[in-house]
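Input for the complex:
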Amino acid sequence: MKIRIVDIADKAGVSAGTVDRIIHQRGRYSEKTKEKVEKAIQELGYAPDIMARNLALKKELHIVCLIPNPNDTKYWERPISGIHKAISELASFKVDIKTVLFLPRKDDFKIACEQILQSNPDGVVYVPMFLQESLSFAELLNDKGIPFVHINIHHSLANPLSYVGQDPIAAGKTAASLCAMALQKNHHILIAYISKEKQEYSHLQDRIDGFIQYFDHKHSDQSQIFHLDIKTNKDESEYDKQLMQYLNKHPNIQLIYVPNSRAYKIASILKKYKRKDFIVIGFDTLIENITYLKEGYIDLIIGQQSKSQGFNAVMLLFNALFRKEAVNPQNLLPVDILNAENIDFYEGLMQ
Amino acid sequence: MKIRIVDIADKAGVSAGTVDRIIHQRGRYSEKTKEKVEKAIQELGYAPDIMARNLALKKELHIVCLIPNPNDTKYWERPISGIHKAISELASFKVDIKTVLFLPRKDDFKIACEQILQSNPDGVVYVPMFLQESLSFAELLNDKGIPFVHINIHHSLANPLSYVGQDPIAAGKTAASLCAMALQKNHHILIAYISKEKQEYSHLQDRIDGFIQYFDHKHSDQSQIFHLDIKTNKDESEYDKQLMQYLNKHPNIQLIYVPNSRAYKIASILKKYKRKDFIVIGFDTLIENITYLKEGYIDLIIGQQSKSQGFNAVMLLFNALFRKEAVNPQNLLPVDILNAENIDFYEGLMQ
DNA sequence: TTGTATGCGTTATCAG
DNA sequence: CTGATAACGCATACAA
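Predicted:
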């Protein structure tokens, strides 16, 4: 038996219109009728019918997603595809979801934020790539009472409605535990990455910290951990040599841990020099990484369900806004372990 | 701009009622008006409004799920929890979803099938645990034109609307690839399992086959693969001894592969004898397995997203029935690799 | 064979 | 401050 708005109107001895105004706090009602109505709602256990609401609704809900341009970093294609999945899943609701892209520079990010604030959305999903700029954006959104969700990068300060993404420390520890399992006695680990100009914030350091922490807590064995940071401002052949020279100098290195999503760069060098004798472990299921995984130049990839980042964030915001559901402030995604055998079944990657 | 039923009625020069009868093929219309209407639908690109339809609908959709009783095998708790998630997700639709449990015996399965057929459901989700009985159930459902989805176990013969579950061969290969990574030179593998009376069908053999296949394709090394099948019709202390004697007789066994979900049984024996020097790899995230994983008596678990099995199956059937969506005949779930570091983030296990 | 009217539960407008 | 009522898009019983 379904409780409708008229049922509680009857019970409270008022009309449906009044109940509606009280439920949506549109004003124009007295305190004592409010109390009567709320009591009736409690007693009968009223829950609104989403379908009927959506049918009767005049105005749409506006949600906007601010994501780095995938032309610059391929990674962002997958969260965007998750957003598209959410869009089609919510197609029958009166909600419009837009995606705004920004180039990974502070000025472009700020311009995009401005633009979004102008459009007065009902909710925002964004990647807080720059610490300071993200905080001021969060503040402006809070001032306007617009709820927002962070994806991929977690800032404890900004106090978003929710964070959707992985715990990068846990991801680092997971990678380390696999390394510990694969590493032979008296062999060493190299933490290597090819990085662009200094990123203000990325998972890089947390993934390294988690990795180190794991080994600190375990028996240390005879293994050592080396570090090699290669800057991309040199030409390609230059950093090829830099890596190979390092590896030749430390012949007991058996395993290479690449804490950013560019393991494929390391793999391409190893392929060039026909060195399949290393175990390489990297992050993120970019198509380039998958190619080398299947060729055997990358052995393990830690996945972070990039698609779910976009999908969950939008769904969560929608449910909070439309159905007024309570939300978890943390939506921690799994730390997925992928290799050549299970990659084909991952996140509908091959569809 | 939204195309409604009256829009195509206008365009075709008929009334809304006629369009409705044609769309739902309720008869009582002439061929030539049918053509006119279908042309209009094509040209205007009509898609029904799910919300309005659900609101206007009188009768509900009945979906029934036939699942083994989790009191007997704990595994089934998770698919059932996935079904419950689907139920709450579909709460606002006019659909009722029931779960029927059966004890893992042919006679009980058959009785449950009878009962379901009596109730004349619109769609069925079931675990085809017994080959012959499942095929005849499938046939009866087909005769009545009732679509059905198989979960967990795949029978190519029965021709279900879809199969939701893992590829067990791929799961075996994935386990093998991890073993290959962890195994030290000149050390051996034991495939061990404690089984009840012969199961008619389970993933067991496929998981073993996939495992063996992987090693067949790789350089064989000096490693050997041993097999040990322990029957549960002895008393506990009996099979404790059987395992330990086997391990003592083959001191170079470093790794134990348990292809069914009862790795915790093996782990409990190893714990009793304080043997942490083996790498144990098992299947399924039963609470018992997770406990030993965290204690270090199990090292790796292959997960099959048991919860998604139930959830996806119901959602898929609902979408096929209610929104008349096309469905993939295969809904292959990922092969998840879990260890002590990433288990806490898996499938909302810890919520 | 076809058209019309009513209802589903909610929102929103307008008259009291 | 409050009540009545017309939409929203579709299904369906009933009238023609």
